[in-house]
Amino acid sequence: MSGAALGLEIVLVFFLALFLLHRYGDFKKQHRLVIIATLLAWYLCFLIVFILPLDVSTTIYNRCKLAVNSSPAESNGSYVTLAPSKQKCFKPWSYIPDGIMPIFWRVVYWTSQFLTWILLPFMQSYARSGGFSITGKIKTALIENAIYYGTYLLIFGAFLIYVAVNPNFNLQWNQLQTIGIAAANTWGLFLLVLLLGYGLVEIPRSHWNGAKRGYLLMKTYFKAAKLMTEKADAEENLEDIMEEVRKVSESIKYNHPLRKCVDTILKKCPTEYQERMGRNMDDYEDFDERQNSYPSEKSLAKLHKQVIYSVQRHRRTQVQWQILLEQAFYLEDVAKNESSATRQFVHTFHSQEPENKIIQYFYTPTVEWYWECLLRPWFYRVLAVVLATFSVIVVWSECTFFSTKPVLSLFAVFIQLAEKTYNYIYIEMACFLTIFFLSICVYSTVFRIRVFNYYYLASHHQTDAYSLLFSGMLFCRLTPPLCLNFLGLTHMDATISHKNTQPTAYTSIMGSMRVLSFIADGFYIYYPMLVVILCIATYFSLGTRCLNLLGFQQFMGDSEMTSDLIDEGKELIRREKRKRQRQEEGENRRREWKERYGNRDDSTRSRAVHTDQKESSFSETNPNRSLSKYTRSNGRTERDRIELLQDAEPLDFNADSVNDDPLESDSGR
């Protein structure tokens, strides 16, 4: 099993990252480089989280070997004997041979840092650029990132000057490397605590509120009202941009040098707008002899950028509106079926997507009723209590992990108890659950936050390239300090435990943080305590209330604006529900019409074909051409009558377009 666990997790984590990227990104429409860069960033970050417990168990086994194979006289203070067992240390099932983990962590860490600080910011600017050539996009990206990279150099220079001025340090390459790692981890830890404080409270609360059907339904109505406003704004913005494109397309003819740029812009427009605007390819105009003012290539690049953004936003709001409608209809069905005496779940509308036959066989209407109306609320409540317990343990450990005598961090207590018995399965499970919960609190906040319309991770393949790359940057910057914080909570980091023991392979590549003592002994220890204040602020929704006061509508039960938006969203959902019901009624009537008269038309058609065959055979043997002509005319009349019967469809009298006076309607005429 040596190294098998490492290889297995490498493969599983890759498919996990690929699955999440497929849910949020669009493999067909987005550039391959964007997909590959984002996938690599997500994959490396998830890989660090999943492999770190194996590093911890391997380190504990190595400590055990050193404690058993060495005596206090032989150690000379190099390693502290950790209560060696009389028996031989058992090798863990997931043991990784020596020399593999340092190389693995070095490759993973520096690759992720190269992505987050150099490649992904450049690709962000490249993806948002409206240039029409690769050279133009690269030039724009370099100009936009000049200030970005300059800030990094300034920060690194400040740390460098601090170390150079201090006479206790001699500048060496390892120390410079440690300064760079410390600067990156400090930036990441600053953001990590903010996101962690929000996730520790919001995740248990969201699962607890998930058991409240009325709460979820009211919040869905609120989202519907806000999304309708955003949807209308996106449609209006798209109309304005398309009007500018139409004017540019009409002014720049096909023989103009910039016509290729216009054609590139037109390809990014929706199909209906392309057909409406047209190309005007037949209208030749000698642009050199006219004194009209034509837009420059720079203005066309700006228009190209606006077209890409407006089309993506319009498509995203359309998809989100349909998803929100399905969610609202589902919650209304749950509220309606809770009082059902038959205990069978009845849907108002049939699913538009074909369901799996295996799921239909096991997930019957009766099973669905018991799960949705009885079991699911209790499951969410129990899960919320478990998550809240984990959150309390994390907050307590964040405030006390610096204490080594006595050990107050609960995670450190759990790991040390398992270390005494060398129960590697328990050690790995405890480490995995701890770091997995911390990662969920941080990463879920990254997926939830929205910075206006510039950064927004939307599911169902609706996330733009800029947001995907930005999420990859955040993951790569948050994961290393997250892992260091986890090792500090479990006292596996020698900087926290103050023990001269063998460090983990992960902390060994970070170098000794003693080069910057004010960060190692100050910021890394006391700044995480700020999570308590952030959790209190999140619990009382202080951020939501501040945004609401600034004019950004947030869901608050005691707000009059929230009540108005709930009523508006409820009316919108009711209107869409009536519209879909009319559509389904019309489709049902058409289906009944075909089922009722389809067999009759088929029998009539078969009789007509049989008659034609008999008449054609008779016409070949009978020289009487007048009779043959008469018979063929009867066949044509019969076929015409059959075609009229086939084309006839019932009228939908519930449609909104029905007019009482047929003379006032063109369709009536």
From TrEMBL:
GO terms for cellular component: membrane. The chain crosses the membrane at residues 6-21, 33-52, 103-126, 146-165, 177-201, 378-396, 425-446, 466-489, 523-542. Residues 658-669 have a biased composition (Acidic residues). Residues 582-617, 635-644 have a biased composition (Basic and acidic residues). One of its GO terms (biological process) is adrenergic receptor signaling pathway. Keywords: Coiled coil, Membrane, Transmembrane, Transmembrane helix. Residues 576-669 are annotated as: Disordered. Its main location: membrane. InterPro entries: GPCR-associated_LMBR1, LMBR1-like_membr_prot. It is found in: Membrane. Residues 618-634 have a biased composition (Polar residues). It comes from the Eukaryota. PANTHER family: G-PROTEIN COUPLED RECEPTOR-ASSOCIATED PROTEIN LMBRD2 (PTHR21355:SF0). Belongs to the LIMR family. This is LMBD2 protein. The lineage of its organism: Eukaryota, Metazoa, Chordata, Craniata, Vertebrata. The gene is Lmbrd2.
